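Note to self: keep these together.
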Amino acid sequence: MATKLSKTQLPQLLPLLEQHLPHSYKVHCDLQNHLGGQYPELEFFVDRWPHPQAAVSKVNTEQMVRGGQGKPSAALELVEGIWGLSDDALSSLLKDPSVLEWNKYVTLSVVTVNQKAVVQTATEMGKSSQLFPCTMWKATRRDLPPIPAPEGVKLRSATTADVGVIISTWKFGSNATEAFVRTWIQDFPSVYLETETGQHVGHMTGKSGGTMGLLYVNPEFRRKGYAKVIVTQLAQKYFDRGEVYVRIQDDNQPSQCLHKSLGFREVPDSKVVVMWCG
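Structure:
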C-alpha cells in the first residue's frame, strides 16, 4: 500500500535516492528543492516505508493557489518525477488510487529505465500515451561565462505579470498549465529580456526538477545572440547550487546546437520521456 511521506520522513528519503542516481535524479531534485522551501505543493509517495522500491513526486493541485490566483484544472494530474527499482513495485504504486486518479488527464516525467513499466501501467489503466523523449545536458561555471545584454535591451527577473506572455509562447502553455508557470516564476530563478521601451525580447525560467527551461526568443529578435544572453545569465543564478542542467527534447536540434555551442554537454544515461496520458 502506498505511503505519503510526512515532513519528518522526507529527509530520510534523500540519501536513498542519492544511491540510485542518475535514474532517481528527477525525484531527487524535486525533493532537494522541496526541502529547501521551493515548490511546497509537491508531495512524495513511496510503495513502502522505510525501505521503498519506488517513489514519485507529484503536484497537489489543490494547494496551488497563490496570491488569489486560480488553481490548475481539476482534470489534470501532474507527476513530476518517477523512480523505481522494481517494475512491479512502480506499477503497484502508480495504480494506487491514493497516488493517481487515472480518470483524469495524467502527465508524467519518466527516466527511460522505467519507461516500459509506466507505459504498460497507463495502458492497463485505459490510457493512451503520447511520448516526448528528452535528454539532460549540463554545464559548469567554467563552461558557461555570462554574456552581457547588449545596448538597447535590459535584463530582469520574470514576474507573475509576465505569466501570460510565457504561457502564450510555450508549447504546452494553456489555462491548465498557467498555475504551474506562475509557481515556477515565484519559486525559481528566471530571466526576462526586454527593450528599453518594455518590448518583450525573450525569457527563460527555472523549473521544479533543478533544470532551466521554457527558453523563448521573440521571432523579431532572433539570430542576434539574445538566446545566448538569456541562457548564460540565468545559469549564473544557478551556479551557487552546483552544475546547471537543461532538459531538451530529442527532436529539438536547434536547442541542442545552441546549448552545445555554449558549453553544455550531454549527461550519460539521462534519457527522460515526458508522457501525456489521455
